[in-house]
Amino acid sequence: MWTQDWRSQFEAAAERAFDVLIVGGGIAGAGVALQAARAGLRVVLIEQNDFASGTSSWSSKLVHGGLRYLASGDWRLTRESVQERQRLMHDLPGLVTPLDFMLPVYAHDKPGRWALQAALGAYDFMARKRYSHYMKPAEFGAHMPYLNRDGLKGGFVYRDALTDDVRLTLRVLIEARSHGVLAANYVRAEQLLFDGDTVNGARVADRETGRCFDIRAAVVVNATGPWSDRLRAQVEGAAQLRPLRGSHFVFPFHVLPVGRAITLFHPDDRRPLFAIPWQGATVFGTTDLDHEQPMDEVPRMSAAESDYLIAAARHYFPARNMQAADALSCFAGVRPIVRGEPGASASQESRESSIERERGLITVTGGKLTTFRVTANDVLEQVGQALGRRFVRNDKAPIIHAVGADAQTRGGVRHGPAFAGMSARADDARALGTTDYRFRELRFALSHEAVAHLDDLLLRRTRAGLLLDQGGLAQLSALEPLVCDTLGWDAARWSDEVERYRAHWHQVHAPV
Ligand SMILES: Cc1cc2nc3c(=O)[nH]c(=O)nc-3n(C[C@H](O)[C@H](O)[C@H](O)COP(=O)(O)OP(=O)(O)OC[C@H]3O[C@@H](n4cnc5c(N)ncnc54)[C@H](O)[C@@H]3O)c2cc1C
After folding, report:
1. What's the CATH class of domain 97-162+242-347?
2. Which residues are paired to 275 by β-bridges?
3. Is the pLDDT of residue 111 over 90?
4. 53 lines ligand 1 (CB under 6 A)
């Protein structure tokens, strides 16, 4: 929880000497912050834009074992991911929720029924639960009424889990703050600082106040995801990343009504795709290709990716006659993948995390949302080595400590224990447009969750900008009094923020 005047105090608070400075406020940085603070370290985290505004907002929203990693023989990653999935479902009910997936089998499909059955058996075995089973075509089709039945031989149902990637990141960060972590958004690490040959901090710029200052720490963790080669260049680290973009559409549920998620293989190249029921809409993706757009721009879905996804949607749901223009929005993210063998295709690159230690800078890249806790513990081991300390690895501790009955409610799970303490107001139960975001949640986010801009509220504290027609521009007048009252904005600031949001939405999220 951030008090409303926290930014004016951040520079003074950051003058202390820290054990760890974490650069990057995505899931990797948030996870390391939490585990390091729990180990008793003094931790500060900075994020150049909004928290979770990088890859951690643009994933497929799955907390999953990753069936396809089994196909590529990556058993260790799959087992670890399945176990983390089970743990996150247990520790974060309401934020990481079980989701059934349908997996159709068509005549001449490869892999065929028996190979899939073996893979799903192994998947269940790793979870020590039996979830998957086979259905004949009539039963399978009854669950997916719009699915192409040509050559359908039947299919499987299996289980994974769903989340809101931003809220997961924020929830971990809120927990980290309750353990004393100092965390600021819109503060960028410009230049690493050195003590002799060893990194011992960073010169940072607060992009909201325009002020530059130094933060000193015994260890600096580079958790900047797809940007991580930039900080590594300052310690002469050779570039190692292969940024790979993945894009998704968000369709209104009535355009692509899937009660359960479905896994499909693209008819052209057999890459796996998902249609996922998410927050009242259907998310459809993803692509996997080299990201050649400038890294200083927010990634966008290209026309070719749009065509690729729509071709698959039309193949599998012919009666829906889907088009890009039917979508509410689209979004794209960049996977921070460590480059593997020369000539490897995008999909062949490993999703394992990688940790490098160079002149006191510990860089963590790759990995998945799902495995953030394991990755954070691995980073903490490296931090311990750098500090000459040994931390007991506690793989059994819950991710979020129970905080009473309200932890189980939607607000408590998503926003943390302070949510229950917020006094009620008359219009709190009102929803924002057709979403199920209530004004109480919006008010809480504005007053406790470091919202600096309108897009923070509409694209990250809530995902309303992805779920409402035209990014929810028609709902903004209903929001204006709440936002302006809570953040102290005048009419001029409000109209600047609306313009900033409108331009950003059209550039990045308008369906291509
Ligand atoms: C299309 C797609 C689908 C995916 N689907 C899934 C999925 O379903 N399930 C799953 O488990 N994983 C999934 N992943 C993987 C997962 O999303 C990523 O592994 C994870 O989000 C990476 O988190 P991160 O913290 O390393 O990077 P990021 O979230 O990108 O965080 C890095 C942060 O560092 C900040 N930063 C950069 N430079 C600086 C600086 N100089 N100073 C301060 N801050 C800086 C950036 O602004 C950014 O916010 C998917 C990835 C993609 C791209």
Report:
1. alpha beta
2. 262, 284
3. no
4. yes
Task: Measure 26 CA to ligand 1 centroid, in angstroms.
Answer: 6
pLDDT at 267 over 70: yes
Please indicate whether residue 201, judged by its CB atom, sits closer than 6 Å to ligand 1. no
What is the overall mean pLDDT for the chain? 94
Q: To test the ligand 1 pocket, which listed residue (45, 55, 337, 460) has its Cβ within 8 A of the most ligand atoms?
A: 55
468-482 per-position pLDDT tens digit: 999 999 999 999 999
Ligand 1 touching residue 223 (CB < 6 A):
yes
Return the residue whose CA atom lies nearest to atom 51 of ligand 1.
Answer: 59
Q: Where are the domains of the chain?
A: 6-55+166-238+349-387, 97-162+242-347, 422-509
Lowest mean pLDDT among 1-5, 24-28, 70-74, 344-348: 70-74
Query: Does the CB atom of residue 368 touch ligand 1 within 6 A?
Result: yes
Atom of ligand 1 nearest to the CA of 53: 49
| Stretch among 370-374, 399-403, 406-410 having the lowest mean pLDDT | 406-410
Beta strands in 120-271 (DSSP E): 133-135, 152-163, 182-184, 187-195, 198-206, 212-222, 241-252, 261-265
With cut-offs at 50, 70 and 90, classify the pLDDT of residue 466.
very high
Integer angstrom CA distances of residue 288 from 76, 105, 214, 335, 474: 22, 23, 38, 9, 33
182: its two tokens: 């100092």
Q: Ligand 1: distance of its center to the CA of 22 in Å?
A: 14
Q: Which mutation among 46, 59, 74 tests ligand 1's pocket best, with the greatest number of atoms within 8 A of CB?
A: 59
pLDDT of residue 405: 46
Task: Give the bridge partners for 219, in sequence order.
Answer: 20
The span from the CA of 293 to the CA of 366, in Å, is 19
pLDDT exceeds cutoff 80 at 106: yes
Strands 261-265 and 96-106: what pairing?
parallel
CATH code for residues 6-55+166-238+349-387: 3.50.50.60
**Residues 501, 2: Cα–Cα separation, whole Å:** 23
The amino acid occupying position 498 is V
SS3 state at 369? coil
Q: 184-243: per-residue pLDDT in tens?
A: 999 999 999 999 999 999 999 999 999 999 999 999 999 999 999 999 999 999 999 999
For atom 41 of ligand 1, the residue with the nearest CA is 189
CA 335 / ligand 1 centre spacing (Å): 7
User: Among all chains, which residue has been given the structure tokens 């130094």?
Assistant: 214
